[in-house]
Amino acid sequence: METLSWDDLRVLLAIHRAGSLLAAGKTIGLSTSTIARRLDALETATGRQLVHRSQSGAELNAEALRLVRLAEGLEHGLDALRRDQTMLAGTLRVSVPDGIAPALARALLAFRHQHPGVDLELVGENRMADVAAREADIAVRLARSTSSVLVEKRLGTLRFGLFGSADYVRRHLPTGRLDTNDASLHSFIGLDVQWRDLPHEQWLRALGAARFVFRSSSMEAIAEAAHRGAGFAAFVTSDPRTAGLVAVQTTIAAPSQPCYLVYHRDLRAQPHVRAAVASIASYFTQYAQP
């Protein structure tokens, strides 16, 4: 009995269901001779005859029927395992720059509506989560990865612009165009100084921004300050938080920032990871430029 194999049990199950060796072979795609060899191997392993063969078909004895029940249990277990490997289920931890977290939340919630078996953890942060160490399953980044264990996909390019409240622009910049020579006369809003090397922060300084009346690590806080008329701030042009703000023309073209999606290569075979990656990439075709 120690030499029983699933292949042999599968043949016995097929004979039981089909009623003959010929029909069993047609059902599972094996020749009649192969079916007979598998049955012989199973009878050798059990030390007894299991099937009485005749011109009218095949009849299983009581011992064979016990093995059939065992085979059916194995079949159900294997089917369940295959379902587990293909079903969209699990928990996904997604790390994104704080500035795009609210917009990406809408895309991920739409994804979860289609795949309710997936639970989501969205982390908006201004640091780069260590995806190689599995701090996050998926991350959207503004810089390319250097790790060999990560799969990287370019999502597109974020375009920036300068925005202010309608009241601030009306009172301080009625022309709607900011001249570099006059930028020092205006108030600006920016990220914490630790992010001064980001392209749009460098751009603000290149425009002549000298007085930053408000800085924060939170884009929500920056948007709130801009809407309350604290000064000019840089936003991704497709950022929904710019609704109600006025876009300002500048003498120096606004920067663009490529963005990338990364995930651990060990997760490539996970259906829920593949589906989430496809959903995020599809969303970015609307949010970012090619």
Account of the protein in words:
The chain has 290 residues and is α/β, with parallel strands linked by helices. It has three domains: 6-86, Arc Repressor Mutant, subunit A; 90-156 and 257-287, D-Maltodextrin-Binding Protein, domain 2, CATH 3.40.190.10; 158-256, 3-Layer(aba) Sandwich (D-Maltodextrin-Binding Protein, domain 2). Helix content is 40%, strand content 26%. The chain is built from nine helices and twelve strands. The strands form three sheets. Strands 3, 4, 5, 6, 7, 10, 11 and 12 form an eight-stranded mixed β-sheet that branches. Strands 1-2 form a two-stranded antiparallel sheet. Helix 1 crosses helix 4 (62-86). The model has no long low-confidence stretch (mean pLDDT 89).
* Strand content bin: 25-35%
Structural class: alpha/beta
* pLDDT < 50 stretches: none
CATH class of the largest domain, please?
A: Alpha Beta
Indicate the percent of residues in helices: 40-55%
What is the CATH T-level topology of the largest domain?
D-Maltodextrin-Binding Protein, domain 2
The count of β-strands is 12
The DSSP helix count reads 9
Biggest sheet descriptor:
8 strands, mixed
Tally of discrete structural domains: 3
